């Protein structure tokens, strides 16, 4: 994958949009990307503002984005333990369903 940024001649109008896109790259490339951004007087936002392109080290990204094999059980256990039906009944309201 190749990312090519193009100058649009003015500020980006985000309108009501928000979001973030992350590109994973080898960790040893991150300092070069940061240096190029600084050389070109591009903004590096810290903290992030909700409209950004992130470059992250591939090694850490792969580790953090692994599927949790216990996720379904954890979610089901939490929903089973949820007492919201009791709360809705106590307040004479019907619990919404998905």
UniProtKB/TrEMBL annotation:
Protein name: MGC76089 protein
Name of the gene encoding the protein in the UniProt record: MGC76089
Signal peptide start-end: none
Pfam families hit by this protein: GLOD4_C (PF21701)
Domain of life: Eukaryota
Source organism per UniProt: Xenopus tropicalis (Western clawed frog)
């Amino acid at each position: 994958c190749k990312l090519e940024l193009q100058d649009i001649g003015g500020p980006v109008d985000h309108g009501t949009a928000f979001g973030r896109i992350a590109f994973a790259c080898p960790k040893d490339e991150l300092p070069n990307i940061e240096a190029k951004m600084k050389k070109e007087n591009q903004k590096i936002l810290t903290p992030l503002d909700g409209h950004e392109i992130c470059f992250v080290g591939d090694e850490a990204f792969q580790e953090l984005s692994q599927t949790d094999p216990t996720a379904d059980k954890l979610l089901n256990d939490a929903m089973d333990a949820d007492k919201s039906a009791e709360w809705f009944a106590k307040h004479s309201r019907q619990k919404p369903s998905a």
